[in-house]
Amino acid sequence: MRPLFIAFAVLLLVVSGNAKDVSKADSEQNKANDQTTPENPSTRIEINVGNPSDAAPSQHQEQHAIAEAKPTPITKGEWLIAGITAVYAVISYFTFGAIKRQANIAQRSADAEVAVQSPWIMVNIEYTPGMSRTLGATREKGGPEIHHTDFVFRFDCINHGKTPAVITEKSAKLIIVTKDTLPAKPDFSDAKVFDNHPEPLAAGEASKEKRDEYFSAPGYQGFDEWVVLYGVVKYRDVFGRDDRQTTFGYIVTLGNKIERLPGYSEYNKNT
Fold this sequence. Notes:
Layout: H1 2-36, H2 59-69, H3 76-117, E1 121-127, E2 134-138, E3 146-159, E4 165-178, E5 192-195, E6 199-201, E7 211-218, E8 225-237, E9 244-252, E10 258-260
């Protein structure tokens, strides 16, 4: 019994010693913390007097600023990408140019094909059988006598193209002018519209019904003058163009012959 009591006493002393050591160590640690930590850190304020520029930058900041100021060198990969982009741009330029040239060639070919297949209306003029030049004179309410020259012409239209057309309007004008004084371009502003009924014409077909029309011009023809009949026939074609027209110009000689007007291309033109 006694040995057991002695052993228990020894064990109690050992435990008590260890507890004191631990308590001492904790006390020293808390003392060290109290020395390094401000008593009231939340109320401690540092005030720096002076401008920010007065503070000298650190060596690390200076090196960082110099590194940012220096241009970044172009890498081999970036040079390669730039070269590939330039080559692609050159190839694209020539490719687009070739495409544009091909498109222009195709457009010209299409226009040429349309021109070949288009209708072409021509206008022929002759005297109405039994009718030719008539000289007349009129006087109104005691006024001076007015001379005029009268004709009755027969109009015949022919489609010389390869596709049908529809004639929409016919107009003409008769004048007497001094030779070589006819304007280079015809003036249709006061031309007489003598037929505005639609007239279909198949390829190679002539008008089924020829049109006879009366025209008069003031005055009598002199030796140095022309009697000129000119006009325009408007039509549309199967390609959707409704602004097609044919101009025509004829002169009547002193011998009453009807001839094409020479030397004035605008008076005999297809568009």
